[in-house]
Amino acid sequence: MQAFTPLEAGDPTRIGPYRVVGRLGSGGMGRVYLARSPGGRATAVKVVHDELAEDSSFRARFRREVAAARRVMGPFTAPLVDADPDAETPWLATAHVPGLSLGAAVARHGAWPEQSVRALGSGLAEALEAIHRARVVHRDLKPSNVLLAPDGPRVIDFGISVAADDTKLTTTGAVVGSPGYLPPEQLIGGEVGPAGDVFALGALLVYAATGTSAFGGGPAHGVSYRVVHEDPDLAGLPGELADVVGRCLAKDPLRRPGVPELVAELGRWEGADGTRGTFTGATWLPTPVAADAMALHTDPLPEEAGMVTAGADHPVGADLPTVGPAHTAVATARLGRPPARPSSAAHPGGWVRQRRTAVLAAAGILVVLTAVAGLLLPRVLSGPSREGNGVGGSGSTATPTVVAKQLTVREQWPSDEDLWHPVVADGKVVGEGQDGLLHAVDADSGDTIWTYDDPTASSLEGVSDGLVVASSNEQGTIQGIALDGGKRIWSVGAQAHTAPGTTFHLYLRIVVADGTVYVNALYDLPEGSEPSGRYAVSALDAATGRLKWTRPVEYGLSDALAVVDGVVYGGMWEKDGSYFYALDAATGDQRWRYRMQDRYGTEVTAIRVSGDTVYAGDSRGDLHAVDARRGTRLWTYEPDVQSAQWLEPLLVTDGMILGGTGENDSTRSPGDVHAVAAGSGKPLWTTHTEGEPEVHGLLGGSVLFSTETGTLHAADARTGKSPAETRLSPDDPDAAVVGDRVYFDGGDGRLHAGRISLTEE
Which residue from 108, 293, 498, 570 has the highest number of Cβ atoms inside 10 Å of its Cβ? Predict the structure, then answer.
């Protein structure tokens, strides 16, 4: 059984750096090919139709959608790994999923049992959670865009087909999409948001459970009429599943459940072997579908294009065309001596070196650090692999059985700017420059796009919904700056949240979510007061600066702050102990308070919310798992470390939590990377690092983490062993990643951009 067909005469043999080996299919935007990456990885490369490539409006939309899709990362999505929207024939590449589509599976084997439908829904809901977290709406979720693999479903084409559909819509004025899966609001010309994808998810579950559409068959206009005006047919669904699906298919988008709610509801499924909510082997698929999926999963890739035949009379050879420029060798570039970093006194607000918080954690996968003795930065960089110092629960140092990996970076450009704390969003890299100003450079070229010339707003807090947020402790202001153009949109002064009788002193943390600025701040009390200061967490309207609410804390407030689904999470300490809290984001009312320690002064230093669980790492080195709804303890992990705190970010992926611990001070102190079972808190492995680590994500079954010594490691995700490593500079590279692009301080006073790969030796 094969998921691909042989190449035909006229098919390209190469698309950009990818060697084409077969056909996967075609769609409304273009033809999809099976290809090998330069390192031999299987990749799906989509080449757009000629008529779209000639449309300037399509190219603009395609470029925008590619930039958005780069931010999507999740275990049930096929990530975008490469693209060239400016090629003569635009193309994009995603990770190849060797699986059959949901449409093919149902057509071939019929309706699914309830447990398989629930498992499908659980994986698809989690995929949508990752897509929406990156501020992308799929808009075309249908059976052909869901691929089935032994370890779970994969959603493909998120956001990408929108460029083609929008171009066709502009040209014809018609609604473009798949009848029966488009939500009512899209059919009547309304705005389509995440709730539209929830509608499509409900329709997919009906299709899987019954083998038919929730709104019947026949001509497209008839199906669309029933979607808008009639109730879905849920007769073939079991009662509890029918209730969930019925809410997904509500006509009013506001009445549909949120994706996190669906993740929680549908996640309570059991596989054929009795395991709960675990996509392993083929325990989640119907037996005949599982057999097909396993066969596709084990099929080898075809030979190189020059070796493949498209039938006896039509050999496919070297005379076939190439799409995009071929890969060429490039020279190395010598770096100058790095300029001195400013002292803490020179930096606005008293700058102290600190590992960069992942402001757009869903936007990136990897951070790459490479150099040769801190002096040479080759255009193609790689580091040696070696046996690691990872230790499991028993501290074993046996030779690992996994295949060693090789890290490689191909530099794209160096910029004239040296940006600290870079954040990547909408095709731009924003950061703090040596001149004390904020700058934005083009993510594709490194050219400076704008400079914000107000030195009182040089401390970058993050980027959210097209808004750059910056603060000044000296002036006490928070400013919102347009990502496009670099013009100030609003400014909020400290007086808006400073209580009578106190004086603003310091911003600890600022987060912007849903049009609201949430602030952790420290205030001074009059001289001679006991205590001398007071803390507060406050919420201000981003458009007007009006104070919505404030909640004073007498003894202490942690730096860590997170706002997720209408809830503010943070840490505080009182005279009788240290707490982790949840507040209503709209009112500031306390939802719950969880006691972490029966002692004063322990801080929450890292927060991550995943489904119904919130994870909080503290300054004593403990990691807490807390029920996000009730604030009750689920488990606490106490690693064997001393005087270390959890560092941001924490990542939750593939049923485990990945995070680093260290001192987080101005010295290069050692640290550790931990993998902990998300459901139980059981330690999986720990790896020691020479400097404080920052965990970036998974690539090819490896965990990528960097250290402040300038080194990137890739350790086996199962054991923590066999880390490949490569060096960028003798200092913290302060890197940011979107998809396979990495932006980092090269140690020569310039921001660099590169692409990375992780290949087997």
Answer: 570
| Beta carbons within 8 Å of 229's beta carbon, 6+ residues apart | none
Which amino acid is located at 602 in the chain?
T
For the chain, percent helix, then strand, then coil, each to nearest 5? 20, 40, 45
Q: For residue 107, give the 3-state DSSP assignment.
A: helix
Close Cβ partners of 511 (under 8 Å, ≥ 6 residues apart)? 461, 462, 517, 518, 561, 562, 563
**Alpha-carbon gap, residue 418 to 743, rounded angstroms:** 11
Question: Mind listing the pLDDT tens digit for each residue in 29-48?
Answer: 778 899 988 777 888 898 88
Same domain, 614 and 486: yes
Q: Do 238 and 143 share a structural domain?
A: yes
- What are 139's two structure tokens? 């808009």
Return d(Cα 654, Cα 635) in angstroms, integer. Answer: 18
The CATH number given to whatever domain includes residue 245 is: 1.10.510.10
Helix (H) or strand (E) holding 509: strand 503-513
Q: What is the pTM of this model?
A: 0.52
Same domain assignment for residues 94 and 106: no
CA distance 432 to 421: 7
**Pair of tokens at residue 229:** 């005006």
Tokens of 649: 């970010």
Do residues 604 and 617 make contact, with C-beta atoms less than 8 angstroms apart?
yes
Strands of 741-745's sheet in order across: 380-383, 405-414, 751-760, 741-745, 736-738
Give the separation between CA 570 and CA 562, rounded to whole angstroms.
7
Nearest residue to 726 via CA among 718, 259, 717, 735: 735
Contact present, 23 and 47 (Cβ < 8 Å): no
Which of 147, 156, 252 has its CA nearest to residue 198?
A: 252
Q: Tell me if 355 sits within 8 A of 648, measured CB to CB.
A: yes
The whole domain housing 178 covers 101-298
Instruction: For 171-207, write each residue's pLDDT tens digit.
Output: 434 444 578 999 999 888 888 889 999 999 999 999 9
Same domain membership, residue 64 and residue 179: no
Of 599, 608, 669, 678, nearest in space to 637 by CA: 678
Output the domain CATH number for residue 722: 2.130.10.10
Task: Report the number of distinct structural domains present in the chain.
Answer: 3
Q: CB-based contacts of 613: which residues, under 8 Å, 6+ apart? A: 625, 626, 627, 628, 634, 678
Residue type present at position 13: T
Task: Give the lowest-confidence range in 395-404, 454-463, 699-708.
Answer: 395-404
CB 59 within 8 A of CB 53: yes
To which H or E segment does residue 472 belong?
strand 467-472
Tokens matching residue 227: 């979607």
pLDDT digits (tens, 9 = 90+) for 396-433: 333 334 444 687 778 889 998 888 889 999 899 999 98
Cα-only R_g, the chain: 26
Token pair recorded at residue 99? 């699986």
Nearest-angstrom CA–CA distance, 450 and 452: 7
Buried residues in 720-759 as b, exposed as e (16+ CB within 10 A): bbbbbbbbbbebbbbbbbbbbbbbbbbbbbbbbbbbbbbb
Whether a cis peptide bond, with omega within 30° of 0, leads into 531 is yes
- Are residue 206 and residue 260 in the same domain, yes or no? yes
* 533 burial level (CB within 10 Å; 0-12, 13-18, 19+): middle
Amino acid type, 168: K
Pair (170, 316) in one structural domain? no
CA distance 178 to 184: 12
619, 556 contact by CB (below 8 A): no
pLDDT at 169 over 90: no
675 close to 647: Cβ distance less than 8 angstroms: no
Q: Is the dihedral of CA 143, 146, 148, 152 positive or negative?
A: negative
* Same domain flag for 93 and 106: no
Question: Do 244 and 317 fall within a single domain?
Answer: no
| SS3 label, residue 28 | coil
